[in-house]
Amino acid sequence: MKFYYFHLMPYVMDHDEPSSWVTLSNRHYDPAVGHTLYHQYLDQLEFAEALGWDGICVNEHHQNCYGTMPSPNVMAAMLVRRTSRAKIAILGNGLPLRENPLRIAEEIAMLDVVSGGRIVSGFVRGIGAEYYSTAVNPTHSRERFYEAADLILRAWTEPGPFAFDGKFYRYPFVNPWPRPLQQPHPPVWCPSQGSSETVEWAARRRFPYLMVFTPLERIAQIYGEYREACERHGYTASPYQLTVNLPICVAENDRKAEAIARAHALWVYHVGLRMLPPYWQPPGYTTEASLKRLLATRGKMPTELTYEDLEEGGYIICGSPATVRDKLRVFSDELKAGIVCSGMNGGSHEATLEMMQMFSEEVMPHFREDAGVDETVGVGRS
Amino acid sequence: MPEPTRIVVRDTPVDLLRDGSGPPLLFLHGAGGGGRWLTFQQRLAERFDVLAPSHPGHAGSPTAEWIEHISDLAFHYLDLLDTLGLERVHLAGASFGGWIAAEMATMASSRLESLVLIDPVGIKVEGWIYPFLFGMELPQIVATVFHNPMAALALAPPDMSIDTLALLYRQNTALARVGWNPYLYNPLLRRRLARIATPTLLVWGAHDRLAPLVCAEAWRKEIAGATLRVFDESGHVPHLEEPDAVAAAVTEFCRTRKGTR
User: How far is B239 from chain A (nearest CA, A)?
Assistant: First the structure.
């Protein structure tokens, strides 16, 4: 199994506002604190490479305290020159949020060339709140996503110049310099929460599917749908197409791990993901069929999840190294997920580094049967 | 309430409510008003043949994927007049429906006997930005749209079933498709309002918090000769908040100002 260290780069704070997204005033953001946090977070990502993680991950969110990386490519650029081995996974760029998505093709190609071909390029639509923060029409979200993805993939693979004339994006000349180093292009991942349309789209192109902050039961269901779709398209999914993103909390014993998780890991759900209901589902962001499925199976909102819900539902993995190994076996052996992306929060920068070290020494080595395999070969390219 | 009838306008299915007798009056509803036959329409039906279609994606009218812009809706309703063989009509629209009606009037005011705009959105007014309803929860929406919140009960959904919630989402989606950005206006419309050569009544709620009276003044400035009637007990939807008084004002205006100005 491959391990990627994932970061949200949150601005951890408490507040009484109804939403941590869109409307939470940025007067709460203290740039001096932000300066320290950014450096700690980047140090953690660099430390992950030193400890043997296979990849490090950044991502894009706007106007919130949950994740302070409005430009993931800027963060990736900082990491490219400070690391030398680990993959750098950008999970991902919000394609429909860009008025000029050719810029994504250019930026990823730059990063890929400088990094010596270590970039994994996630394509996402952005969550609902992003459409309030960028003013992009959410009823165009899916169409813009497909069209921008098509543009970027063609820009990476077809010799330029060529003309592109889409519904949303039109260019008389597509001819980006540089071209990416990885051929035919950097692997593309699809981080998502399980809409059937995205499952089908990703499976058809062999793009790995990444389930983000989802309960175990639903991960199993969506993996099943993804595998079926791959079979329908004439191939069997590689384990490295089935990826999961979930927080891990490890400590000397279960009791201590639980105390840390209760104190720090819950923040993401109870504060970080607190938002007004309209922000989850802006009009037209979801198809009517997906909306009905969502309403019929609706569980708790993130803010309603208790520690027990998270722990028992498999939203997070928490415990002693032995417990964490057992729980990870569910992902490696039962779900047959090939890559686990996980962030950690020890409560302070130093405690987080210690937790990362413990995980790398006492958990990771037990899952290294595939040590010689490059997880990006043969996947992520249509 | 009349039973909805299904008509097809150039391949686009439309649910139409129609009742009353007299000269034809096309009423274009606002957000959440589709498929309803309210006091306002009942009163108008005493003097007019009232036609109240549901916009595509609203109430019983299915979503029309081809609609990308507010002008598509305006052409859709001009096509509806052709489909029904109506050469000239009185045209009334409320809020979002008023926006569509104004677009139609800039295209084909020769088809209109009179034009009634009830707290329309659709133009940019200096010094005013429409509050972003798409980001609000229901209580805040009601507080923004209604001066008399009891009037909101007329638009209350029958239940909170999955089908009802999906319908509300579909209606919001249809609105957002043409009104998310620019939010509730067409940058090209304001200059074109000068083309309207139809007697025009502007009906406005004194306490409109979505499009306040400063917007009414902008509309009156752009449509030469337009009459403005302000209703003191209303917010954004006077036809729901003071239906009898507004219907009486509309009836009186349409019966006396018929024809080109």
Answer: 26
What ipTM is given for this predicted complex? 0.95
Number of domains in chain B: 1
Q: How many domains does chain A have?
A: 1
Helix ranges (H only) for chain A are 31-51, 72-80, 102-115, 128-134, 141-157, 196-204, 216-232, 254-260, 267, 277-280, 288-297, 307-313, 321-329, 349-362
Domain contains A373:
no
- List the single best residue of A280, A288, A293, A297 to mutate versus B (max B Cβ within 10 A): A288
Mean pLDDT of A179-190: 97
CB A139 to CB B134 under 8 A?
no
Give residue-wise pLDDT tens across range A201-256: 999 999 999 998 888 999 999 999 999 999 999 999 999 999 999 999 999 999 99
Return the CATH number at A129: 3.20.20.30
Q: Answer whether A96 touches B (CB < 8 Å).
A: no
Q: What is the rounded distance in angstroms from the CA atom of residue B49 to the CA atom of residue B61?
A: 21
pLDDT in tens, B109-155: 999 999 999 999 999 999 999 999 999 999 999 999 999 999 999 89
**Structural domain contains residue A356:** yes
Domain of residue B217 covers 5-256
Q: Tell me if residue B214 falls in helix, strand or coil.
A: helix
Q: What is the CATH number of the domain that holds B117?
A: 3.40.50.1820
Residue B261 belongs to a domain: no
Q: Does A32 touch chain B (CB under 8 A)?
A: no
